Amino acid sequence: MNRTAVDKAFVGEYACFNIKPFKATEKLTRNDFRKGMVLLDVGLKPGIVCEFEAEIVILHHATTIKENYQAVMHCGVIRQSCMIKKIFGSSQLKNGDKAVARFKFMMSPEYL
Predict the structure, then answer these.
(1) Could you tell me the mean pLDDT of each successive run of 10 residues in the chain, 112 residues long?
(2) Domains in the chain, ordered, with CATH?
(3) Distance CA 108, CA 104 (A)
């Protein structure tokens, strides 16, 4: 971080990589990459998800939150609209409420 050169990056750390194509004839552009992409060992068998469940706490919201509510999720480098498909144990949430909810990404699957 902070433009400091390092030889290793460990679990839970953020790092930037200088990536070059294998062949000099190939060209990488900014369109080949997007925020949220991750670099992982193939042995981990990484997978992406369209839907996920999370425990949420409503700190402050002007109205009640119900199923089909859409918001922008901020998780690490991921910034994407998602919809609440199901709220477990409640039909609506208001300030101070805590619940487990099932979310669906609106645009494209992500690696969480």
Answers:
(1) 80 79 84 78 84 94 94 87 95 94 94 82
(2) 45-105 (2.40.30.10)
(3) 10
